[in-house]
Amino acid sequence: MPSDSIGKKMKFLRKERKLTLKSLAEQTGVSISFLSQVERGKSSVTLESLKKIADALDINPSFFFSENNSLENVDGKHEPFHYQDLSHDIRDAVFSPILVTLKPGENKGSAFSHSGHEFLYIIEGKLTVEIYGERFELHEQESYMFDARKTHYWFNFSDQNVRFLVVSSK
Length: 170
What we know:
Layout: H1 3-16, H2 21-28, H3 32-39, H4 47-56, E1 81-85, E2 95-102, E3 117-124, E4 126-131, E5 134-139, E6 143-147, E7 152-155, E8 162-169
Antiparallel strand pairs: 1-2, 2-8, 3-6, 3-8, 4-5, 4-7
């Protein structure tokens, strides 16, 4: 899905909820200028920023994605991850299943937190997980569940794709 589609959806929801860019920025900790650029399709959004925005708008991050679509940069290049919503358009569920594919070497990003719990199940490859400053590896067919209020992020330091299931609760 092109970034401007994410931006259009974000702007629609923000206006529907009668939020200004300033108030959304305050709720997310993301700058007003960045939010404006995303809404205008001038900047791509990271998973961590998208999660913060989704939480502030009180929606599931999968709202921004169509099934089997990945994020694209404004210049049409694919981002280093693929994010597939597995909820089959069920919007008010108490959990959200998402299939993530991280490309080789995808190891940039900063830890974030959100409400609920998160469950990870590795389908293919080796995922490096950081929770509350501690890093460890999960391999194929391994899983881990944790309190998502603890800062966390995941990385692919390998030379192969890593595919994993993320189930987040509200």
